[in-house]
């Protein structure tokens, strides 16, 4: 029976799910007999735990690893770098510093995603575990930065001041450090607090599940709700709403693709590719749309309005 916090279904049925790298190391060290099939040999194991479908390790059966997602991540890096540059040029825009920090954090997740889902580092290796833990920490911090931008946009505190940047930075660092530590403990089990799953094949960690699954979803919902309130309730504008609605739709589609269609794509493509590259493209498209949504509510024509002072 699957319980709340169990990663086993995700690691079996969701190809290229990065947090499975943490549990692979845990099983290898504490119950290696639970690793069967494609996962049995760490030297050739793909991303996942005894996966129903997974992209083979690079070189196995002429595999190019997760080449489609590697390309998607690489292209996304250039797109987000351009957004950071465009944001930096808008010196008078509200929440410019905070939005740029969000973009920088998302930018940093991309090379880590490329590596942790790429199926070209040995499963169970310390390098892959550490990179996956950092990736998890960056994802959690990125979603705080997303929500933090919505909070700052309400002008509850003045943007780009110490009253905004200190708590913004503090919680970004706190999420990163906490989730990275928990992830390392799940994989390396150096304490009993976040250590071995019980039973081991459940791949269970409630804190990790909350911080990598529940927290991002909750932060995204709160962000979109706050931005709709700001645009409709405070700015009394309709046009920018469509950017945020489109962003929400793209984000939902990315998650549906990742968790529902990825296995279908994997099987249909004979394990050459999976849906992770589509999810990456949709997530980056979401960030692009959010940039245009943010840009649309910081136009010069609104600078003298009641909202922006």
UniProtKB/TrEMBL annotation:
UniProt KW Transmembrane keyword: yes
InterPro entries: Chs7
Keyword vocabulary terms for this entry: Membrane, Transmembrane, Transmembrane helix
Keyword Glycoprotein: no
Transmembrane segments: 67-87, 99-121, 127-152, 164-184, 204-229, 241-261, 273-294
PANTHER family: CHITIN SYNTHASE EXPORT CHAPERONE
Name of the molecule in the record: Chitin synthase export chaperone
Species of origin: Somion occarium
Lineage of source species: Eukaryota, Fungi, Dikarya, Basidiomycota, Agaricomycotina
């Amino acid at each position: 029976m699957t319980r709340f916090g169990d990663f086993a279904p995700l690691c079996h049925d969701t190809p290229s799910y990065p947090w499975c790298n943490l549990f692979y190391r845990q099983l290898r060290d504490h119950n290696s007999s639970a690793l069967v099939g494609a996962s049995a040999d760490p030297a050739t194991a793909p991303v996942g735990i005894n996966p129903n479908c997974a992209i083979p390790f690079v070189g196995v059966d002429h595999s190019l690893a997760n080449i489609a997602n590697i390309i998607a991540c690489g292209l996304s890096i250039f797109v987000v770098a351009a957004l950071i540059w465009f944001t930096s040029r808008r010196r008078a825009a509200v929440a410019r510093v905070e939005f740029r920090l969000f973009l920088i954090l998302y930018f940093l997740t991309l090379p880590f995603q490329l590596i942790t889902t790429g199926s070209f580092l040995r499963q169970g290796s310390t390098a892959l575990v550490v990179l996956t833990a950092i990736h998890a920490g960056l994802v959690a911090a990125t979603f705080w930065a997303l929500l933090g931008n919505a909070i700052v946009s309400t002008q509850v505190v003045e943007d780009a001041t110490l009253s905004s940047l200190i708590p913004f930075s503090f919680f970004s660092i706190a999420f990163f450090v906490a989730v990275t530590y928990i992830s390392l403990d799940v994989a390396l089990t150096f304490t009993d607090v976040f250590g071995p799953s019980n039973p081991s094949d459940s791949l269970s960690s409630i804190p990790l599940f909350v911080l990598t699954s529940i927290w991002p979803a909750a932060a995204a919902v709160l962000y979109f709700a706050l931005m709709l309130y700001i645009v409709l309730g405070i700015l009394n504008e309709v046009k920018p709403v469509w950017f945020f609605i489109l962003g929400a739709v793209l984000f939902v589609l990315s998650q549906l693709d990742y968790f529902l269609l990825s296995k279908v794509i994997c099987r249909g493509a004979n394990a050459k590719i999976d849906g992770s590259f589509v999810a990456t493209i949709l997530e980056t498209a979401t960030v692009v749309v959010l940039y245009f949504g943010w840009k649309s509510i910081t136009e010069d024509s609104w600078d003298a309005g009641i909202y922006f002072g």
